[in-house]
Amino acid sequence: MQTPAPFEYERATTVEGAIATLAKIGPEARLIAGGHSLLPMMKLRLANPEYLIDINDLDELSYIDERITEIRIGALTRHAELLESELLARRAPVFRDAEEVIADPVVRNRGTIGGSLCQADAAEDLSAVCAALKATVVLRGPEGERTTGMNGFYIGPFTTAVGADEMLTEVRIPLRSGAGSAHEKVERRAGDFAIAAVSAAVWIEGGVITDAGLALGALGPTTIIATRAEELLKGKPPSEELFAQAGGIAKEDCSPVPDGRGPVDYKRHLASVLSVRALRRATARALQHEDR
Fold it and tell me: Which residues, in sequence order, are CB contacts of 167 under 8 Å at separation 6+?
C-alpha cells in the first residue's frame, strides 16, 4: 500500500494565517483543499511536502460575484458550484461546458478552481477555460496582492508564478459585450483527463470579431494559448473558412507528445477539429447576445 512521507498538518482559520504559515515554513509547505491532485502525488512520493495547510474552512474564498466589468470567483469555489452557477452559464458558458466533463460528482463536490489552476496540469480543463476568457488571477502574500494574466501564470509543467509564500485567492473574468464562449473535449471515458481539449471565446460587434481567445489543453507541456490563431480571428467576420484557418494554426502551434492516449498526429488533428467546433459554438452564442 502506497503512503505519503510524514508531514505536519495545520487547519487554517484565516487567509492571513495561511499566508503567515507559508512564509514561515517556506517551500516545504503546501496548501490543500480538495486534495484530488496533491494527495495521489504524495502517495506516489512525487510530491513530498513537509507541511500541509488545510484551507477548507476559509469560506471567504468561496463565491461567484458579478461586478460592473468582471466576474470574480473565489479560489475555494468548488467545481459543483461553477457547474450550477446560472451567472456563469449566462455570461461565460464555457465554464459549464467544461465542468460537465470534469471527473465525477465526488471530485466536483470537493475540488476547487484554485486547486485546479495551481496544479498546472496541462490536461486540466479550467486552465484552458480561464486562458480563453483572458482571466487574471489574484495572488496574495505577506507584501499584499498582485495580479497576473493566464499568459504569465504558467511557467512550466506543474509550475506556476505563485510564490512559495503566496496563495491564489481569486480569479477575475472580464465582462464585455458581444461575448460567446465554448469548450470542446475528447476523452477516453467520461470524466477522464483530456486526450485533447480546446476552449474558445469570441467578442463580436457589428458582425466582426473584435477579440478572441483560444486555449489548448493536453496538447503540450502546459496549457497553450494559441496567440497566432487569436490574431488571425481579430477584425474579421466569423466564417467556417476563418475557423478552419485558425484550427490549422492551432494544429501547427501545439506540441503534443505520444502516450497511451494517442499518437502525435492524432492529437494535432484533434487540435484543429476541436478548435473549429469550439469557435463555431462560441460564435453562435455571441451572436445570440451581441447586444448584451
Answer: 15, 18, 19, 22, 31, 55, 75, 114, 139, 140, 141
Write out the three cell numbers for 118.
Answer: 495551481
| Cα–Cα distance, 54 to 32 (Å, whole number) | 5
CA dihedral 146, 149, 150, 151 (to 10 degrees): -120
Measure Cα distances from 188 to 23, 73, 181 in Å.
41, 30, 24
Handedness of CA 198, 213, 177, 168 (dihedral sign): positive
In a domain, 141, yes or no: yes
C-beta separation of 196 from 122 below 8 A: no
Q: List, for residues 181-217, the tens digit of each pLDDT value.
A: 999 999 987 767 889 999 999 999 999 999 999 999 9
- The count of structural domains within the chain is 3
Rounded Cα gap, residues 220 and 252, in angstroms? 12
Host domain of residue 129: 64-174
Q: What is the DSSP letter of 60?
A: G
Q: Are residues 143 and 41 in the same domain?
A: no
53/193 Cα distance (integer angstroms): 27
Domain final residue, candidates 152, 174, 196: 174
pTM beyond 0.90, yes or no: yes
**What CATH number should be reported for the domain holding residue 37?**
3.30.43.10
Domain boundary among 174, 203, 235: 174
Amino acid occupying residue 243: F
Which amino acid makes up residue 290?
Answer: E
Q: Are residues 225 and 270 in the same domain?
A: yes
